[in-house]
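2024-03-11 09:14:02 DEBUG pipeline.ingest accepted 1 chain
2024-03-11 09:14:02 DEBUG pipeline.ingest length=206
2024-03-11 09:14:03 DEBUG pipeline.predict start
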Amino acid sequence: MGRLLASGKGFATDPAFGGTATAPAIDQSELYFLGASQGGILGGATSERDRLLMKQASEQRLGEQISAMEQQFRPDEVRIIQSPGKLILRLTGLSFPPGSAQLERSAGSLLSKVGQAIALFPRAGIVVEGHTDSTGDAESNRRLSEARAQAVQSRLMTELALPAGRLQALGYGEDRPIASNDTSAGRKQNRRIDIVIKTADEGATP
């Protein structure tokens, strides 16, 4: 039987062995296509692995940042709420006199800690949200909540020397309750300041 030798277009028969043999010819362009396809598959797998590693690293970094924040606050000062793309610091230890947006002197220590927590996220956008209960006129509550958010914003900007565009203040009034306004305990929970840290800006999503 003839021996098959590779040629540029496929296989040929060595005459020294006699006989004839045929085999499907494989064009060099086909070989190139197969190689390129395999390279594309391997490249895609590598890219997917890199994305997975980056995601894992981001999640680990976010966990470390949250752990560092938790160590800064007493349990009665702040509640940390993790949501997709953001963290909420609910300032349970911060209160205002009724109908006032004037920060009390005792707020200084807590807001200093909040500033340190924000500093852990140097690229994240920050929103200070003010909320009230439903007592009184809705528009008055909205203005009051906004004034309180602005008071906290001003203190934090002084504390951190942040550019104005990075730290927003919004007032939602009574529109976003987290408890019933039918009880004094519920109304107390609804009167609050939330600090929203946009962790998605950091490239880390919880």
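2024-03-11 09:14:41 DEBUG pipeline.report Residues 1-17 have pLDDT under 50 and may be disordered.
2024-03-11 09:14:41 DEBUG pipeline.predict end
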